[in-house]
Fold these 2 entries.
Entry 1:
Amino acid sequence: MNAAADTIRFENVSKFYGEVLGVNRVSLTLSPGITTLVGPNGSGKTTLMNLMTGLVQPSRGKISVLGLEPSNATEFFCNVGYCAQFDSFPRGLTGFQFVLDSLMLFGMSEMDAQGLAAEALERVQLDAAAAHRNIAGYSKGMRQKIRLAQAVAHHPRVLVLDEPLNGLDPMARAESLALFQELGRQGMHVVISSHILDEVDRVSDRVVLITGGYLIAQGNIHEVRQEVRDKPMQLLIRCDKPDLLASKMFAVNHCVEARLHGDGRGIFLRTGDVDQFYRILNEIAIEGAVKIEAVAPFDDNANAIYQYLIGSDGSTA
Amino acid sequence: MTDLIGTLRQQPWSLWWVQFRRFARIEIRRNLITKRAWWIYFLAFVPAAIIALHLVIDRHQPSSMNEDTNVLAGIVQLYYVRLGIFFGCLGIFSRLIRGEMIERSLHYYLLSPVRREVILLAKFFAGSVSAVTLFGLAMTLGFVLMYIGYGGAGQDYMLHGPGLGQVQAYLLIMVLACLGYGSIFLMLSLMFRNPMPGALLLWGWEAINPVMPSLLQKFSVASYLRHLMPVSVPAEGIFALLTVETEPVAAWVAVVGLLALISVVLVYCCYRMRRLEIRYTTD
């Protein structure tokens, strides 16, 4: 199997809506796992997803998903499922009929389609009674679930999810995230765009940060954080003498800020040189003057990176 | 040529056929069984309802059968072709794609493993079946109601006289009108966000077409259909002065000419469909 057959590739892709920029010169290769697209409203996340699935066509550049192009719809959409953001459905259908109708277009028998539809509804935890009611009477969360069921029902290898957590209650969010994680572990591509960064952060293998139609960073979330060198990294150190640790750390010039934790058993430190920081911390630990209990990066998450690179709080964007 | 045949043979025709039928079934159900279609039912059945009123109220003298035959020809040519089928098809065919864009549900189909051409042709087929079913039933009902009041003479006219040939011709005209106008409205809906101005222009063109020079008359659905009319409707008044008499065209030429026009329009529709983008916010 060649590399292209297992990746999603954007090669210098631009999309203009008349004179309005959608995305510009995006080059990106996504391997299997969970990828989160992060960016403010209008940054180009949905455009990237629509380009990936052929709902819009690139003005320039080339896109391939597992070596396939959307113009080859038969093969392409057997491998790709897209849960779009549009909260609308064909009229007059129950949730079950909606999923069933979609599956029947794959050319499978009605019995097979019914089996897959029931399985998909179970996966998204939509109960059978609700599934046989008209979609017009669904709550927002149920509509979100039925869209997700339709996208995963045919067992695609690539699942594209535009704001899949919108409208879901905390329990349903947790269940959806668990489903995404499970799919990612199975070797699927799961591409998610979401504003709920704290939650998707926990399940993402990599992030793609985009703003104003330009890709500004991509990769494993910790790697991306390392690349943001102009923002000192914040760490939380749990220890028995935080004030002593702070004074020792301030003796070196890469520590720019220290803040005691509220419980008096930890300290937040900002450092411009993480490697140097860990070296000195090891020395302090060996000295034995301060008993270090735990060290954890505090701002190598999507929300912090979003704030550093894009400048606003992702959770409210 | 051999390559082309080889390529065609390799295509998944059986899958496309399954998808085509599935789409068509969904679409026919949606076209015919919906509250929104009430006005199309009204357009189709209003002549039959008026004829039924006459059947109840009027006395049918055998001598007035010829007059009723002319009235029926007038209903087909002036009402059905120019008004009922025209606007009925506008309602059905312009909604096939554009309506789904307005309702923001077209993306589900474009994200299915179905070639866009198959989606388009299945929708066109479904629209045609819906329109032909509605207008065919209405026209046949009107025909039967028109002659049933004449008792045995009317029955003879319908079953053993020229009536049977006339109703067949009217049904052929109706089918071609549905396909012709349907394809054009489908094309307009793919070209413009609002196909209505284009449709009204076409309506105006079809209305004034009989008084146009004979060359321009060829670019009209109604003019082809006029040549297929089993009973000609004489132009009267100012229209009689303005109407340019064209050379009679053989029925097969009119049918083939119209089918060729429909094919060309559908090929263009397929081209537009392949390039169609989902941008609901701007649509």
Note: Chain B touches chain A through 30 residues (CB under 8 Å).
Entry 2:
Amino acid sequence: MKSLRRFFSRLGSFGAQRAQEARLKEEIDEHLALQTAENLRSGLPPDEARRQATLKFGGVEAVKENYRAQRGIVFIETFFQDLRYAFRMLRKSPGFTAIAVFTLALAIGANAVVFAALNALILRPLDVPQAQSLYGIERGMDHFPAQSYPDYLDLRDRNRTFDGLAAYNIGMAGLDTGESVFPDWVYEVSGNYFDVLGIQPYLGRFFHSADEHGPNSAPYVVLAYAYWHSHFQDDRGVVGRTVQLNKHPFTILGVAPPNFHGTLMFLYPDSFVPMVNQEQIEGSSSLNARGNRWIFMCLGHLKPGVTPAQAVADLNSIGSDLEKTYPKDDGNMTFVLARPSLYGDYLGRPAKAFLTALMMLAGLILLAACANLGSLFAARAADRSREVALRLALGSTRLRILRQLFTEAILISLMGGAAGLWGSVMLLQWLRAWQPFPQFPINLPVTPDANVYLVALLLALASGFLFGAVPVRQVLHTNPYGVIKSGSTGRAGQRITVREVLIAVQIAICAVLVTSSFVAVRGLTRSLHSNFGFDPQNSLLVQIDLNIIGYKGDAVPTMQKRMIEALRTIPGVASVGLGSQPPLSNGRPTDSIVFGDATTDLRPVNSATDAVVFSVSPEYFHAEGTALLAGRDFTWQDDKNAPRVAAINEEFAREVFNSVPNAMGRYFKMPDGTRIQVVGVVEQGKYASLTEDPQTAMFFPILQVPSSQTSLVVRSSDAPQQLSAAVRSRLRDLDAGLDVMIQTRSEAMDFVFFPSHVGTVALGLLGVMGALLSVTGIFGMAAYSVSKRRRELGIRIALGAQRKEVLQAALGRALKLLAGASAAGLLLGILASRVLSSIVYQATPRDPLVLAGVVLAMLFLGLLATWIPAQRALSIDPVILLREE
Amino acid sequence: MGNAMKQKTDVLQGTLALMVLKTLDVLGSLHGYGIARRIEQISGDLLSVNQGTLYPVLLKLEQEGAIASEWGASENNRRARFYRLTREGRKQLQVETQDWEQTAAIIGRFFEAKAGDLP
């Protein structure tokens, strides 16, 4: 009751601060006046009477503080007081505030961006019900998710651990509404796809397992919400309408809900069709080919209570049975489970490794920033020791002073955090809209969510406490008497201070960052000039799938031949070649196992090698700039009626026939027993990725192994871009529907360079940030040390010290620190770059250029940061200085 | 260090409050200086230093409603705040006096007790 009343009384008095304060002051004045009068009466002289009265009263400020504590809600009130004071202090030194906020904004912004990416791609599951129990299946030693349709059916029907198993494949089709044709990214899905995932239609209905009755039995299409919105203008009447997909009629059944974007995180499909209609979409059917692994991924929910290990055991027992039953087609039938959202481990593992490494580097940036600000704060606290001493002498508690310092630190960290978050949101918005590959509808769902904001806030608070804690010891050990008497000279001994340790740590961290960015940039430039097995300069890549515009069977090679002829006549074109899919472009090249000619038991275990397969036209090697090491190029006579021939690469020749000369004229066998003669050997190249080990490859004549996928390589004498208009018009003349995609050959390689590019840009940015931080850190320290020792330096100059000696006295310690810490950082960076080599192609720190680059960069940064302090030290005029003192 | 000091002021504040109430009970309306003088006269050196500590105690008592204050004129004819006991303060004084006497009696008995007194 009593305390309640007091509480309300306090709440009331919270507002009436000023009046209360005035009243106390008046009471104290009157008290002192009365006591003084009393003392005068007892015979003391006036001065002494007043002094005695004051002594007797005790510390006025302490009483006031105590009185205030009694009066108000202490915590809130002193908090606001501290806050006001902190604002005032920060306003008084705008330079310090700006540097501190900027430093933190950079560091927290970098962390927020990296965390947002990590959160979006790795931590956040797919937006489907019960995503936690949803797993994709990967096969074999290389954990590749692809499956064949018959294998999928066996896995689906015989497993006892999944609550239904769905499958999907990604394809491209032309969707004809009757008025116009749109490109359409199609998910070919198993009939149970939506039911297994537990997705309900937004409009109309979905197809189900019961709708499938064998090949081409379910001509139904479900539209993705965004596609329906953009291409059908939210028309609810589309349900039941018939559209043409690759010239085949499909009935629109319904529309998927807005938040469902398929089961691959970064590629949003436009529509879904039943997988049994594969032939209509892709032009050929692989539904019965057990050895043809074309399904992108199989996925499903584990049954309640089933662990992933149990599911793997279940799948493996089916797998070993399949291996026995179908020895010709099924080898390596062991399985693992992985999260489906990033195409399992195939992309998930490198993405995770990369983002985790980036997160660690970003954490280092923040740590460096904290070390930086910590030393700034320590310097500031040292400069304010007089103020602190005064406050202590007036009766303030040390706790109160510390709270004040922390309020300032937290205020700065929150301002920095807010600025950093704002910047990162901008950057993320840009990332969200970024389309790295124009031919793929890539979507990076990196919108910041509550997690990102929370992490940014926590990081800001944590770093505020971290760098705010640096001057604590200093404040606790302030001796007010000593400081006020002697002024704040500080100790000028050789003792290593906390600040110097912090700066050294910070420089070392920054050197690590600079080293890794150098390693990354160097790796990228090197990989741009490595040998790909073809020459990407001065050539155009013209791509189209003839199946989409309705070419079937024999019409395909005829058309391809006409296309080559048409392009060859364009002035400036040196040669034209045609392939199914060129190496190092979008997508993974198909591969096939092959057998030695003597092998009769054609089971996968007996295979000679697993080689990537390309179908190419005559003159293709010439157009690509691929050197023919032995034998001959293909001709148009290598057709269906001629004996089967192939060109192989060096690795194939070595692995299967021991040497290049030995391979010429020899035979090998395909899994179906076809004998193929080697008529040419071409130079080794890179086929699927830049970082791959030497891979075996074989090239077949396009007339013997036809493909509707058509990639024309057009080599010109120079400036290939100028040819693209001519190429387009020549092809339009052949068929108005030939809507091709034209890129330069180097542009087409963006896909394989993507990881290196992203890695290099990210590491480069972090390196620049590290460099910026080390400049501000060294600058702060050097400037502080010069300003502290102005008097000493002035005396030295007056006594005749030379410029060199002055500089050594002023900056020697800073430079020594810089050198030592950089060396340590460089060593650490070299160790850390081992991690980088998995991401950035040919990233090796044991490269004299990298080492020299880092040393020069740190030297340059050191010079840059100490330039102004050095000038200031040299410009000290002892006469002015002595007059001032 | 801070802890010990805090305890000391707590005790001081508790006893000071009681002394303030008793003083106002005996002498009627008084200003801060008057109260301080009176306590000093009776208690010796308790308030010979740090007279200022009285004012937070006065504020606390006023917030609790034990005393009330109003402006009046001091001996040298200037404005001074005069405190007086309220009805509630009188009740509180009674209760606390009893408490105090009880406590003092118990403590007194403890100090008087010798080892042989206990069975």
Note: Residues 73-125+350-490 of chain A form one domain.
